[in-house]
Amino acid sequence: MEAKVRLRRMIRNDGTFPGKEVGETLAKKGDVGYVVGIGTYLQSYYIYAVHFLEKGYVVGCRRKELIPADETFIDDGDDEDMEEFVEEPSLQESQV
Asked: How many helices (H) and strands (E) does the chain have?
């Protein structure tokens, strides 16, 4: 694990992150972090625990919200909600 990843979209608190207001930005598009764990939500989505070292905390992200950090990042300005159903059981270091 501990794949280095980059956010494809801004992540805001949906009420599940303690100590932050609902709607407060937790991580910005383009931020880099490390996958430190994988869980599921409603048995339908994999949630990747991403540690953002500069922020100092771990945020849950969906797979479509992440790209490998070494992949070219293009900010398309599109932050639409990207839903994804479970497709595979684990994140391998070579893929995100």
From this structure: 0, 7
Whether residue 58 contacts residue 36, with contact meaning beta carbons closer than 8 Å, is answered with yes
From the list 81, 95, 75, the residue with the least C-alpha distance to 29 is: 75
How far, in Å, are 5, 30, 88 from residue 71 at the CA level? Answer: 9, 11, 21
Q: pLDDT tens digit string along 2-19?
A: 889 999 999 999 888 888
- Find, among 84, 80, 90, the residue nearest to 9 by Cα: 80
| Cβ-contact 36, 3 below 8 angstroms | no
DSSP 6: E
Q: Residue holding tokens 């805001």?
A: 12
Q: What is the C-alpha to C-alpha distance for residues 56 and 94, in angstroms, rounded to an integer?
A: 25
